[in-house]
Amino acid sequence: MQNLVEDFLQYLRHERGQSDSTARTYAALLGKFTAWAAKQNLADWKQVKLKHLMAFLQGERARPLAGEPPTSNRLLSSESVYLEIAALRAFYRFAENEKLLPANVAENLSLPRRWKRLPKALSNSEIEKLLAPEEPASPEALCDQAILELAYASGLRLSELRNLRLEQLHLDAGFINVIGKGSKERVVPVGRKAIEALNRYLESARPKLVTPKSPANVFLTGTEKRKRGTPFAAVTLWLRIKKRVLRAGVSRNITPHMLRHSFATHLLEHGADLRVIQELLGHANIGTTEIYTHVAGNRLRDIHRKFHPRA
Questions:
Q1: What CA–CA distance (Å, rounded) separates 96 from 216?
Q2: Tens digit of pLDDT for each residue in 146-176?
Q3: Terminal CA-to-CA distance of the chain, rounded, Å?
Q4: Residue 294 among the catalytic residues
Q5: pTM metric for this prediction
Q6: Quick check: is 170 catalytic?
Q7: Are residues 248 and 129 in contact, defined by beta-carbon separation less than 8 angstroms?
Q8: How many angstroms separate the CA atoms of 227 and 210, rounded?
Q9: Half-sphere exposure of 309 (CA within 13 A, CB side)
Q10: Residue 233: CA count within 13 A, CB half-sphere
């Protein structure tokens, strides 16, 4: 069963151009099912029927969360079940199209309704605190400053920040080329403050972090005394940002996407067109971007309630 899953993962990477992160997510989700199937003595995908998929999903809905104490009543979220169903449906579509399985037994699995969670954005005062330069201006501090300024100025994903390379920078012209999901390239403008922070980092800090084996990634790990000169891992980069958030005195729990959400929300609140925001964020579907209209709507409603004399 695992061999067919591997074929599917290769298809995602090489034909669909999906990222390694997406492939790992599908591998983990399908791995749960193949482990369950082995316990049911199902040794081949051809043996799997709709009733087996339903039994697996029913068990997942009733399964307590891993790592929770025995007394906890917390169960798997509907979002997690949604992802498991989506992974099974995508796998079966691939297997059917490639004539690897005689039938798509997952086509009648219905996806549960996904509640739209409104993205959380930072306030203007929180952004000001977070982007205030740190002293002394060590190479590490200048690197953090450039990352934060660019994340807020251009709405880049964490993976796009990590993988940004020197040849993608066109700071004199005021833009960068970004390689996003599915290896899709987009052009994103960069604001004056972010350009200044990047130039300062590239001139004064990056040369002190680079080693003979360093790649051309813009952002590199290490300090002036302890050069590493390697690209950031996702966890390492986010821990750096979290520490900076604490030092800046921002008390909210910041998530990796909040700077990206703040970028989009603040643009919309200041009159930017939704299609432009879609292009800047690299969203394939306008429906993904439309969630920001709800955020801006809530903000406008709150302002109206606070300041309207008849509220």
A1: 42
A2: 999 999 999 999 999 999 999 999 999 999 9
A3: 62
A4: no
A5: 0.69
A6: no
A7: yes
A8: 7
A9: 0
A10: 4
In the residue annotation, 157 being an active-site residue is answered as yes
> How many other β-carbons are positioned within 10 Å of the β-carbon of residue 225?
8
261 as an active site residue: the answer is no
Phi, psi of 93 (to 5 degrees): -60, -45
In the chain, DSSP assigns E strands to 169-170, 175-179, 185-189, 220-222, 227-231
Instruction: List Cα–Cα distances, 258 to 74, 101, 270, in angstroms.
Output: 26, 42, 18
**By the 8 A CB rule, do 34 and 63 touch?**
no
Question: What does 137-157 look like in DSSP terms, one character per residue?
Answer: --HHHHHHHHHHHHHHHH---
Q: What values do phi and psi take at 164, rounded to 5?
A: -60, 130
Judge whether 74 counts as a catalytic residue: no
For residues 179 and 163, is the Cβ–Cβ distance under 8 A?
yes
Say which of 13, 32, 129, 181 is annotated catalytic.
Answer: 181
